[in-house]
Amino acid sequence: MEHPSVGSIDFDAMAAMSQEEALQSLLNSFPRVGLQASEAGRARCLVQSMLYKRQEGERVFLAYTSNLVSCGLRDLFVYLVKERLVDGVISTAGGVEEDVIKCLGDTYLGRYDLDGKDLRRQGINRIGNLLVPNDNYCHFEDLFTPVLQELHQRQRDSLWAEATAPSDYIAAMGKALGTHCPARCEESLVYWCYKHDIPVFSPALTDGSMGDMIFFYNFSKKGLVVDPIRDVRRLRQLGGARNSAIVLGAGLPKYHLLSNISMDRVVIVTTGIEADGCTSSCTLEDDHAVGLLRADTEVVRVQGDATFVFPLLAAKF
C-alpha cells in the first residue's frame, strides 16, 4: 500500500526532553497516530501555514461561536487580531457581546452541575461552567446605549441615505471601549479589530442582549436601522486571490462565512454531528454537496472541543 504505517508517540524519548521539546514532539507525532489525532495533526499544519506562513495574496478568516469568547479562548483570538494574523472575523451576537462585557466585569469559573434556577435568583447567568453576573449586562447597556444614540444621530443627519451595518455597530463599540474603558480595552477582540480596521461580521446582531437594547431603543426613539445586506457585500469584497478559513464550531458563523467566500483552505473544529440534519454541522461530504466547499478546497475537519483543540493548532513553537 502507498500509505504510511500507523505511528506512535515515543514517550521514552520525550522523558529526556524539555517541556517545550516534549510538547513539540507530541504534536509532531499526531499525524501518524490515526483517528482524530491524525486530523488534528493535519489541521495544525494548515493553521500554522495560514497564520505564520501566509501566501502572497492570501486572506485569512476566523469564525467562532459565542461560547468560545465567553471562555478563556478569547485571549487567543485577541492575539490573532492584535498581531493582524486574520483579515476578518465572523461570529454571533453573543460572540461580540461577551467580548465587550469582559472588559466591564469579570466572568467566573463555576461548575456544570450548579443549580441554574438558584443562580438566577442570585442574579448570575451560567454558560456551561462559566458564571456571568447580571450586573455585567447592565454595564454593557451603559456602554452600548450611547453608541446607539450616536449612530442614530448619524442616520438622521444623512436622512437615512446610508443605513448602518452590523459591522459598523461593532466597530463603534470598539471605539467606545477605547474611550470609556481605557484600563481594559486592550483585552478586547472588538477593540483591536476596530484599532486595526479588521471587520467583525455578525449578521444576527439582534439575536442577543444587543437585540433587546436595539428593540427598546427603537420603541421610544423610532427610526434606528440595522442593515445586514451591506455587510454581505463587504464580506464578499474582502476575499482575496486566495482565501483560508479557521472555523471553530458550527451554526451561523460557519455557514455565513463559507457561503459568501470561496475558500482554498479550511480547518473546521466542531462537535457537530451528521445526525443534527443541519447544514452548519454536517459532514464534509454534505458541505461539498450543498456548495459550501469547492471540490478542490483543501479541508480538514477535527471532531472535538475547540477550547482545547484550537490552542494546540495555533500555538507557535
Automatic annotation (TrEMBL):
Matching SUPFAM superfamilies: DHS-like NAD/FAD-binding domain (SSF52467)
Gene Ontology CC: cytoplasm
GO molecular function: deoxyhypusine synthase activity
Segment forming the signal sequence: none
UniProt keyword NAD present: yes
InterPro entries: Deoxyhypusine_synthase, Deoxyhypusine_synthase_sf, DHS-like_NAD/FAD-binding_dom
A Pfam family that the UniProt record links to this protein: DS
Keywords annotated in UniProt: NAD
Transmembrane segments: none
Entry similarity comment: Belongs to the deoxyhypusine synthase family.
Name this protein carries in UniProt: Deoxyhypusine synthase
